[in-house]
């Protein structure tokens, strides 16, 4: 892992923000343990539901296994662009997941196409909660943390 030890620890505990939550559009934590063998330099283990290996990033940029390939299109691309119907379906899935997370006072802070997983049933699930924060209360006006988290290229 390229992160320093403190960042890795914070990321591990941030992932557990969603451990008790269950929603169709959020990757579910099945089990977690902060225990690790003394011979390993590990923070612990998180077991999450299997959602496949395709992300919205793969779909948008044509690199995933679920992409409809064709020889060429008018744009010079070798893949079929998303239909309006599919775009709306994905958007609704993502919004439903975010509405649920926000109702639980969880802020993702690193939402990007590569953190949206597409299941084999073609459902979007929000994952990678390593930068997430659990808000203490919904009236908090402290927004400083938003400037310090997430993927640098997506700020």
UniProtKB/TrEMBL annotation:
GO CC annotation terms, alphabetical: cytoplasm
GO MF annotations, alphabetized: ATP binding; protein kinase activity
Chain ranges of the Protein kinase domain: 1-155
Highest taxon listed in the record's lineage: Eukaryota
GO biological process, alphabetically ordered: negative regulation of metaphase/anaphase transition of meiotic cell cycle; positive regulation of MAPK cascade; signal transduction
Pfam families assigned: Pkinase (PF00069)
SUPFAM superfamilies to which the protein is assigned, alphabetical: Protein kinase-like (PK-like) (SSF56112)
Cross-referenced Gene3D superfamilies: Transferase(Phosphotransferase) domain 1
PANTHER family for the chain: PROTO-ONCOGENE SERINE_THREONINE-PROTEIN KINASE MOS, SERINE-THREONINE PROTEIN KINASE
Official protein name in the record: Oocyte maturation factor
Species this chain originates from: Trachylepis varia
Gene name linked to the record: C-MOS
